[in-house]
Structure formats: structure tokens, C-alpha cells
Fold this sequence. Notes:
33% of the residues lie in helices and 18% in strands. It contains two helices and three strands. A hairpin with a 5-residue loop joins strand 2 (58-61) and strand 3 (67-71).
Amino acid sequence: MYSVENYSNTRFNVQFKEIRNFLQKNADTGFHEHFHWGRLDGMMAHSYLDVERLPENALFRDKGGSLVGVVM
């Protein structure tokens, strides 16, 4: 069973660091190698980002609380 958590409405926070680390870890194994973690950095730093809509993004966690998936 997984729990779903919405991203907060702050650009750079603990969740951002966790997602970035998750993407880097998976890119290093060759999985999703074309979804670079740099795109996340660019998205969050973009001047047109609608911060109020950030909570529409979801983080999936396993029973231990580890991040296992992201929908953005």
C-alpha cells in the first residue's frame, strides 16, 4: 500500500530535495535516463511557474515513508 502526498505550494523545500535525489538515483541506473533531474530544477526556477498549482503534484511513499514515485 502506498500513501499519496501533495507537494506544498513552495518552490524549493524538503520535498523538492527529496524528488531531486529520487530522480538522480533513478537516472544513475539508466532508468528514465532522458528525464533529467535538471528539468525539475528548471521548472521550479522558471518565472512563469504557477506556485499556487504546485499542490496538484503528487508524491507516492511506501509504508516506510520512502519516496517511490512522483506525478508532476
